[in-house]
From TrEMBL, chain A:
Keywords: FAD, Flavoprotein, Oxidoreductase. It comes from Prauserella muralis. The keyword Oxidoreductase applies. InterPro entries: CO_DH_flav_C, CO_DH_flav_C_dom_sf, Diverse_Substr_Oxidored, FAD-bd_PCMH, FAD-bd_PCMH-like_sf, FAD-bd_PCMH_sub1, FAD-bd_PCMH_sub2, Mopterin_DH_FAD-bd. Pfam families: CO_deh_flav_C, FAD_binding_5. This is Carbon monoxide dehydrogenase. GO terms for molecular function: FAD binding; oxidoreductase activity. It comes from the Bacteria. Gene3D superfamilies: 3.30.465.10, CO dehydrogenase flavoprotein, C-terminal domain (3.30.390.50), Uridine Diphospho-n-acetylenolpyruvylglucosamine Reductase, domain 2 (3.30.43.10). SMART domains: CO_deh_flav_C. SUPFAM superfamilies: CO dehydrogenase flavoprotein C-terminal domain-like, FAD-binding/transporter-associated domain-like.
TrEMBL record, chain B:
This is Carbon monoxide dehydrogenase. One of its GO terms (molecular function) is iron ion binding. Pfam families: Ald_Xan_dh_C, MoCoBD_1, MoCoBD_2. It comes from Prauserella muralis. It comes from the Bacteria. SMART domains: Ald_Xan_dh_C (SM01008). The keyword Oxidoreductase applies. InterPro entries: Ald_Oxase/Xan_DH_a/b, Ald_Oxase/Xan_DH_a/b_sf, Ald_Oxase/xanthine_DH-like, AldOxase/xan_DH_MoCoBD1, AldOxase/xan_DH_MoCoBD2, AldOxase/xan_DH_Mopterin-bd_sf. PANTHER family: ALDEHYDE OXIDASE 1-RELATED, XANTHINE DEHYDROGENASE. Keywords: Molybdenum, Oxidoreductase.
Length: 289, 736
């Protein structure tokens, strides 16, 4: 197995074009597990940690451009105010060691239905920026996840960044796990509220992370946008049902399908309550579940 | 007896562990870290059927991997003597984890049984090649589903130490007429020890001399076992295990990895290192049996127990495994007028079960201590009060005297520290936002035993003391506490004592198990030190040096050192020693009921809607006899509680009931507690010596885990009103 160590993005893209079988490695927290368990034996690893462009973030045109190689620890400490939803999700990833290494780009590359950032990326309407020697393009998050652990990348493409709007209303992320840390989500949920906009997405509850479009339409239509009053229980319940209905969960070692549906409903009700309270109080940040 | 030169007692002090610096600086070498010239690496090939015969093994692809030296199967492996049938008359026969003669048979007895081993120049080549070995089987019908097999369980045979059943009065008749009853079924799944260090062996043959570095809890017996299996005299076998990275019972016996590493070294003529993968640890090392239990309690309206029935079904294997004393707590804890306990077992095509921290008691106490809490609810009596109303004066099942029992005092101390009086009696009555808050309590109980160990102690004229004993150190702190004990006994500073352990070349000791190592070794160390003190006073008298330091006396007497030995390692000496030990254990058992005990108090918070559980507070008050080292003893107790939290909330081997395969043989699938799951744990010990044990020690290794799962289940019931009787208590069980 070759270990390729580009130092610039151009070099990385050239290598990827030349050797589409080379597997990119950023934090390595997914890749190394796969190698250790011999689930994967790539002809080459393409180490992206030497590419400085990928480890930066910036703001322009009212969007945050988050480099694919920025680790969770930095998302939390540097972008907690700007991207509160993503920071909440980042805080629940693994352990300090995993958060020091793991990246949003890697979460996207792995495209696990249980990846913690996906519901937030979907709910905020993020776009994934990818590049190859042929040029660049951006892909809407909901078009990015194409199957269980599959994504929309072409063999010669790399993820370079994620574009997200800074929070202008309220963002919430919630996750249920079987223990208190170091845990893959049994199910996860994100909701984003901006004036006239609602983003709702769920994770670990279907073959791919997915938006709950009906639930979004419901919020846009039914939330008391003009009169910032606490939400009626009936509205929360109806919302929770739509979210649970959007799931297509399975029974597995982490939880039953029935439990996932139930818990998603709970997370939906709760996260919506928090988000709405933040929204009507002009968006203070809150602890996630 | 306990005194040092400066008048301070070392026994009781929280002295830092002797091996701490070696471990924290990376200086400690564990069994897979010994370098030998020409070292090779081995990897196991697990069977993929639960029962059958191997019809063919294709090793061509594996042998072709660069770096592979050989692939051993039953077709070409050296012949081994089969393990002896286990008998309590010869304790060392128990050490064979299974009855399978690995790589000497075409029979497969469980999914995961190693059927081949690859030896290669690197561990990577070995693992790669192991994955390429192709085995064909003739499958035979296999019985792998514990739940389905439960009705076919047969009564366990008992022995003097562990009766299969016990009886006082007519518990079933009393139950039928009791005004208040609880009758419930509880289940616990298969648990794995998951010590931090996976099992590892480095084996080296020089001619017919064998040196084995093995992560074992049982140096002496392993040596005997290897001598038998490989047909060499015991004197030619040396087992070394100065550092073992945790065991919890999982390293008590000889599992396939150890035997196969030694076999591979013999076949290749080169040193072999075999470090099990985490998957191997789950599939090729015995685990804790699953259990199904019934506890039925009858009481009068004042809460006096009139009937106590506790029965259990556990699992053993067609190729080994042991009964477990699941119902033992029911014989000791409550002064019920009528008691019946009965243990039965199923026999499956499964990896034999083995001891895991407080075998029997850990899972049995879950059922019994849950049921007592249920009864308290039925009666409307505080669960601590109910226990106190039924606290016996004598051992309930047979009226034997307790050598010492301070459970009342432990409850009083624990309740005070925890603030038990603030608990509202009603379940589901305390809420903090979305969290339902509950408090639970349960009794911890673990029998205490003392075996015998051979020890030599040398006192030198330079003032140093050397204690030599082949005990094992898995992180408990045994070398540290024996140094404290010897220093006090001889009146020398702690630093003057050197303890040699973890080597079969040293005087033979017991295995580290049954919470008996500290008391057993202490008994011999004290006896040897007593001999030395007497020799020393004779010398002092002779030289007119009474009242002077050992160095002054020995110097005046022109004696460079004096030695004292307890026990003998000759063949006859060993046989006599074993006979003496068995006689003592049986005599002790006849005379006394001895145990460490304690009271667990915990607070849990349960998310009312998702069923997530957080343990938020813990106090445990123990009666473990005399505490030799507050730091290491408290760590053992705390560690037991952490393990119990895992048992209560997370740990479960998920088994495919069709194939008999474990579906989660890894730490990402089999969850143990992480730091965020563990609250601050407040430990208190009464520190009252047991009069019948050396220094009054009752043992601390296992009592900590007993009762923990029940305390949590009881707290969850108090928080939510839901009684969960099937471990682990996962969120889904709390929302449906
Ligand atoms: C102990 C442990 C705990 C974990 N806990 C969690 C958790 O709680 N929540 C969670 O969501 N995940 C968890 N994970 C998984 C993992 O940490 C995350 O998915 C993380 O985001 C991966 O990032 P990485 O940089 O380490 O990715 P890597 O392992 O380097 O890569 C992951 C995948 O993405 C591809 N890739 C990486 N960068 C690029 C790029 N720029 N362009 C194209 N492809 C790319 C790789 O080829 C690979 O397929 C855990 C992992 C471990 C080992």
């Amino acid at each position: 197995m070759d270990f390729l160590r580009p130092t610039t993005l151009d070099e990385a893209l050239a290598l990827k074009a030349e050797r589409p079988g080379a597997v990119p490695i950023a934090g390595g927290t997914d890749v190394m597990v796969e190698l250790n368990f011999d689930h994967r034996r790539p002809e080459a690893l393409l180490d992206l940690t030497g590419v400085a462009e990928l480890a930066e973030w910036s703001t322009s045109d009212g969007q945050v451009r988050l480099g694919a190689g920025v680790p969770y620890t930095r998302v939390i400490t540097e972008l907690g105010d700007v991207l509160p939803g993503l920071a909440m999700a980042s805080r629940t990833v693994g352990s300090p060691q995993i958060r020091n290494r793991g990246t949003v780009g890697g979460n996207l590359g792995a495209a696990s239905p249980a990846g913690d950032t996906h519901p937030v990326l979907l709910a905020t309407g993020a776009r994934v920026e990818v590049a190859s020697v042929r040029g660049g393009r951006t892909i809407a998050a909901e078009a990015f996840y194409t199957g269980v652990k599959r994504n929309a990348l072409e063999p010669d493409e790399l993820i370079t960044a994620v574009h997200l709007p800074p929070a202008s209303g309220a963002e919430q992320f919630a996750k249920v796990g079987t223990r208190n840390a170091m845990v893959i989500a049994v199910c996860s949920f994100a909701v984003v509220l901006r004036p006239g906009y609602a983003g709702v997405a769920l994770g670990s509850a279907a073959p791919v992370p997915r938006r709950a479009a009906e639930a979004e339409r419901f919020l846009v239509a039914e939330l008391p946008w003009q009169t910032p009053v606490p939400l009626a229980d009936s509205l929360k319940r109806a919302f929770a049902e739509l979210v649970a209905g959007a799931a297509d969960p399975i029974d597995d070692v982490r939880g039953s399908a029935a439990y996932r549906r139930h818990a998603l409903g709970v997370l939906a009700r709760r996260a919506l309550t928090w988000a709405w309270d933040d929204y009507r109080n002009n968006g203070g940040e809150r602890q996630c579940a | 007896m306990t005194r040092t030169v400066d008048g301070e007692h070392l026994v009781g002090q929280p002295i830092d562990r002797i091996d701490g610096p070696a471990k924290t600086t990376g200086g400690a070498r564990f069994s897979a870290e010994h370098a030998y010239p020409g070292l090779t690496h081995a990897a196991l090939v697990p069977a993929t059927v639960s029962r059958g015969r191997i019809t063919a093994i294709d090793t061509a692809a594996a042998a072709a991997v660069p770096g592979v030296i050989t692939v051993l199967t039953h077709g070409n492996a050296p012949k081994l003597n089969p393990p002896k049938r286990p008998t309590p008359a010869n304790l060392s026969t128990l050490v064979s984890g299974t009855q399978v003669n690995y790589l000497n048979t075409d029979e497969v007895h469980w999914d995961g049984q190693p059927v081949a081993v690859v030896v290669a120049e690197t561990s990577h080549a070995a693992r790669e090649a192991a994955a390429l070995v192709h085995v064909s089987y003739e499958r035979l019908p296999a019985v792998v589903d514990f739940a389905a097999e439960e009705p076919n369980a047969v009564a366990q045979k008992g022995n003097p130490v562990m009766p299969g059943s016990a009886k006082k009065g007519d518990a079933d008749a009393a139950l039928a007429v009791a005004p208040v009853t609880v009758d419930a079924r509880y289940t616990t799944p298969q648990h794995h020890h998951n010590a931090l260090e996976p099992h590892a062996t480095t084996a080296v043959w020089q001619g017919d001399e064998l040196t084995v570095h093995d992560s074992t809890q049982s140096i002496t017996w392993l040596r005997k076992h290897l001598a038998l299996r490989f047909g060499v005299p015991e004197a030619k076998v040396r087992v070394l295990a100065p550092f073992v990275g945790g065991g919890f019972g999982g390293k008590g016996f000889a599992w396939p990895g150890t035997i196969i590493a030694v076999l591979a070294a013999r076949a290749t003529g080169r040193p072999v290192r075999l470090l099990l993968t985490r998957e191997d640890v789950h599939r090729a090392v015995g685990a804790r049996t699953p259990s199904a239990q019934r506890v039925a309690l009858g009481a009068d309206t004042g809460g006096r127990l009139t009937a106590l029935v506790h029965t259990s079904v556990t699992r053993t294997s067609r190729v080994g495994g042991q009964p477990e004393q699941v119902t033992a707590p029911a014989q000791h804890l409550y002064d019920a007028t009528n008691i019946r306990t009965a243990q039965s077992q199923t026999t499956l095509d499964w990896m034999p079960n083995t001891s895991m921290r407080a075998p029997g008691d850990a899972i049995g106490s879950f059922a019994l201590e849950s049921a007592i809490d249920e009864l308290a609810g039925e009666l409307g009596i505080d669960p601590v009060e109910l226990r106190m109303r039924n606290e016996p004066e004598r051992n309930p099942i047979d009226g034997k005297r307790f050598s010492h029992r301070m459970l009342r005092e432990a409850y009083a101390l624990g309740a005070r520290r925890f603030g038990w009086e603030n608990r509202s009696p009603e379940p589901r009555s305390t809420r903090d936002g979305r969290w339902l808050v509950g408090m639970g309590v349960a009794t911890a109980y673990h029998p205490a035993m003392q075996f015998t160990a051979n020890v030599t102690v040398r006192l030198a004229a330079d003032g140093t003391v050397t204690v030599r004993c082949g005990f094992q150190e898995m992180g408990m702190g045994n070398a540290t506490v024996q140094a404290q004990i010897a220093a006090d006994a001889l009146g020398v500073p702690f630093e003057a004592v050197r303890v040699e352990y973890g080597d079969s070349a040293l005087p033979a000791s017991v295995m580290a198990g049954g919470s008996m190592q500290t008391s057993t070794v202490a008994g011999s160390v004290l006896a040897a030190c007593g001999k030395l003190t007497r020799r020393l006073s004779t010398l002092a008298r002779r030289t007119g040096m009474q009242g002077r330091t050992p160095t002054e006396i020995l110097t005046a007497a022109r004696v460079p050192f004096i030695d004292a030995a307890v026990g003998s390692d000759t063949r006859l000496g060993a046989l006599a020693g074993q006979a003496r030990m068995l006689a003592k254990v049986v005599r002790d058992q006849r005379t006394w009921a001895k145990a460490a005990c304690g009271a667990h108090f915990c607070e849990v918070r349960v998310d009312a809607d998702t069923g997530e559980v957080r343990v938020s507070r813990w106090t445990a008050a123990f009666d473990v006899g005399r505490v030799i080292n507050r730091k290491t003893a408290f760590s053992q107790l705390r560690g037991g509680i952490v393990m119990g939290i895992g048992m209560a909330l997370f740990e479960e081997a998920l088994v495919d009931r069709r194939t008999g395969r474990i579906m989660n043989p890894s730490l990402s699938g089999y969850h143990v507690p992480v730091h965020a799951d563990v609250p601050p744990i407040d430990i208190a010990c009464l520190d009252e010596p047991d009069p019948t044990m050396p220094l009054g020690i009752l043992g601390v290794g296992e009592v900590g885990i007993t009762g923990v799962a029940a305390a949590i289940a009881n707290a969850i019931h108090h928080a939510t009103g839901s009684r969960i009787r099937d471990l682990p208590i996962t969120p889904d069980k709390l929302v449906t």
